[in-house]
Amino acid sequence: MCALATATLVAGCAKQQDGYAHFAENMDTSVAMSDNFYQYANGGWMNNNPIPEDKSRLGSFDILHENSRNQIREIVEEAAKNKGAMGTPSQKIGDLYALGMDTVARDEVGMKPILPLLQMVDEISDDASLAKTLAKLNINGVYPFFAFYISADPGNSTMNISGLSQTGLGLPDRDYYLLKSERNNKLMEGYIQMLTKTFELAELDNAEARANNVVTVETTIAEKMNSRVENRDAVARYNKTDYKGLLAMAPDFDWDSFFAEVGLQPDEINVNQVKYFASIGNIIKSFDKAVVKDYLKACIFDSYDSYLSSDFVNNSFDFFGKQLSGTPTITPLWKRMVGTVEGVMGEQLGQLYVEKYFPASAKERISKLIEQLRIAFAQRIDSLSWMGDDTKARAKEKLSAFTVKVGYPDKWKDYSELIIDPKKSFVENIIEANKWEYKKELAKYGKEVDRTEWHMTPQTVNAYYSPLSNEIVFPAGILQPPFFYAEGDDAVNYGGIGVVIGHEMTHGFDDQGCQYDKDGNLNNWWTEDDAKAFAALTTSLADHFETLTVVDTVKCNGRLTLGENIADNGGLNIAYQALRNAVGNNDPMVDGLTIDERFILGYAQIWACNCRNEYLYNQATTDPHSPTHLRVNGQMMLFDLFYKTFNIPEGSPMYKAPEERIVVW
After folding, report:
1. What are the distances in angstroms from CA 200 to CA 195, 211, 220, 482?
2. 555 DSSP β-pair partners
3. Phi and psi (nearest 5°) for 390?
4. Residue 646 — φ and ψ, nearest 5°?
5. If you placed Cys at 571, which of 165, 278, 502, 624 could pair as Cys (CB 3.0 to 4.6 Å)?
6. Can you tell me the distance from the alpha carbon of 17 to that of 8, in angstroms, rounded to the nearest whole number?
7. What digits encode the pLDDT tens for the residues 298-351?
8. Is 508:398 a contact under the CB 8 Å cutoff?
9. Cα gap 401→377, rounded to integer Å
């Protein structure tokens, strides 16, 4: 795109007629834009792109993910055909993929590879052996009751400390256990049936009773857990203590035995949910050991059933795929195995991916666009009426301190010590890979944080902001149409990748990100009055989204989705500011549309998506992102440019009075 190279619109850009595959083809003009702008902008696309049988949704992200997966498939299958010497990247990639694709061998071996884990559970005899078993399960990628991990210290983000976080549910959220409804009751019945069949496949007696034991334990865990909304409070999640403090905080669990088995007794540990861990020992001790063993075995199956024989795979899919997500058909094997290889060696594949598919020139163009968005954000901060000068100065300091990562890492992850042994079974190699990853993470304890590390692979179709590093990251996978057209129309690019960039920048200043300073530390840099003004605005934004419908009678959870809604709100305003900085007052028509129309339609059409109702029900409960139709309609209702551009009449469904239109950043 021309504006990526310069700050002005070059006349030749107006010749780009297909900056977004022709707007008209994607639209449904039979729908009034003032009634449902999302449907107006995307109805044509939605009619022409039905959801495949093996998916619960289909949208722009999903299509790009499919494209990326096809490209990764070429790399993986080439490695499987032409394996290098033992220990080379191609050997590891090729052998793991080949082992996963060999369903005959997987069916023959069945559940034998996880028998040592199940036997370990059977050998629990007292509190000490139980604690040691929980540690061993963590090491093997299974996290019943809680997870022990290593991450940057929120209070000193340059150093790695350890952490404890609540885990242990088989269903996606505690609400599935606690909120009684016809739908939740039906899902619980299906879940118990799935667990029962799992125990039957494992040839364990009293399968249904065991399944009910699992649900009993998980329900108790759910009752003690923090909600997803509570877990959004970064300050409440920061409870650093020393080892003696942990013993005082959670006295009824044998931490000595747990950490002896882990091989690390931490001096600094962050307990994310204090109330939960204060009761963890009592939760475990409230059940007979036999009941706890059933629960632990279910956790093992939950972690490994997708790698086991076909009967386990299909049993899991029948519930989690068909019932919970509404997906009729299981994803083809090759797609699942490409995903597995990515999960184990994602960055190794990413290195091969960018060499083949991502030119250095694209990285340079996006980097320049990001700087244009940074300038626009600073201008937006200066113009805020609700924020005082002192806080504005600190906000701009934080914005200036953003680290920007584009495309792929400067330093690649080292997989040299990971062993993929073709003589072992598929599941045995997955288990060893989990152990390798856990050991690698434990080695970070007490060391400086490696700020070169990425938390997404280059081929990922997504982006992120990390508050602990104060960095924004844009993998190569998202830097392509419909988000970014290298030679495309400015308006479309700013409405696409421009809003994505602004969205990630705004995460540094959403209701969670704003609690971290420019160095990535939890630190209040706000004046009291400005903090109150910000809280009032964000409360209004949450209230607005809670009036909007996700599916049927289910409303959006404005508190759960608040951070993402703030980021969308900021991303739109910042990207439009950057667009106008780039093009000035020029308004070249393309396909009969003004620059403002193309900007708004460009934004709306990146969110084109068809979703199954089951997917939307689950999203409303678990996802911090609003569904795509609300990311368009919910934001347009607050966006002054939308009213100015499309003359939305007062009293229409898309209309909000000017004084009710919330602008945070």
Report:
1. 9, 10, 24, 47
2. 549
3. -65, -45
4. -115, 5
5. 502
6. 19
7. 999 999 999 999 999 999 999 999 999 999 999 999 999 999 999 999 999 999
8. yes
9. 13
